[in-house]
Amino acid sequence: MAVYTQLGAETLAALIAEFDVGALVSAKGIAEGVSNSNWLIDTSGKDGNGARFILTMFEGRTDVGDLPFFLGLLDHLADKGCPVPRTIHDRAGASFRWIDDKALALIEFLPGVSVSEPTAAQAYAVGGALAQVHLAAQDFGSTRANGMDLTAWKGLLEDCGAQGLAQINPDLAALVAEELPLLAQNWPTDLPRGIVHADLFPDNVLMLDDKVTGLIDFYFACTDILAYDVAVTHAAWCFSNDGTRFDADISQALLAGYEAVRPLSEAERAALPLLARGAAMRFLSTRAYDWINTPADALVVKKDPMAFANRLRFYAAHPALFAA
Ligand SMILES: Nc1ncnc2c1ncn2[C@@H]1O[C@H](COP(=O)(O)OP(=O)(O)O)[C@@H](O)[C@H]1O
Ligand SMILES: N[C@@H](CCOP(=O)(O)O)C(=O)O
Question: What is this model's ipTM?
């Protein structure tokens, strides 16, 4: 579930009244998501014909100092025709407001559902949408360092400790000890960089049939290697949930969709095997940390770190996977 903070009806109505969107009609907590609290908001609409929004309350994981970057990026991408929700600004022009010590943003609602078993046509569309974002963000004026880079993965995994990792799986510490130095020594420094989504999992993509109607949850977006974002999206889309089954058709379609909009250079393609190992390590590290540190009575479903250890092993065993 992802409503960590309860907001009373009066508080919500007063908040919505700060925006030019009509009066609050209903607010329903959204169960999906793990990081922030989200509500589906219905209002009477500016013209009385009704309107729908997502209200997001930023909980501890999002640094409020980054909100101008995240919310400004949504508006920039939407202006450029990407399937990304706009931020609704309040009557004073602010892109987010505060209730007590928590920041909240009202976001355009986009139609569509997250697919759990993508078809090749859907993967092709997702690849294309990712490339469209990479190109459209080229003239976005701001940058943001990736807080979830190699140094951060290393820190999280050190914090877990060999014993903590062994509690998850007896082989996990050895895998991490082997892969982390290899990634650190070989991580590319000269590939094209730009704004990346960095978390484009199926639950962050809304689709209707084969069309991408919404890319959401840009709260890890940052400046990094563009091909790393391709690798993250590949790791997220091309395997069964538990990471034990790789789907070559989805992989081929995702990459073809991306390249139909932004062809990869030879250097980018050559780096994909290593970047994919890095992408798998990134999600292994946060999932392992959460697995060990989330209290047993927390209201969040913990995600399995081994699903990304399995992907990591697969990428390490198939270095020719991305050969053109
Ligand atoms: N702009 C949007 N339009 C429609 N639904 C949305 C939108 N933003 C979020 N949602 C819904 O809210 C859920 C949680 O949002 P998300 O941003 O992924 O939360 P979290 O950051 O906690 O993971 C999504 O799975 C989706 O169902
Ligand atoms: N996609 C990550 C977790 C980040 O959660 P999100 O709900 O904010 O996308 C994972 O699967 O580990």
Answer: 0.94
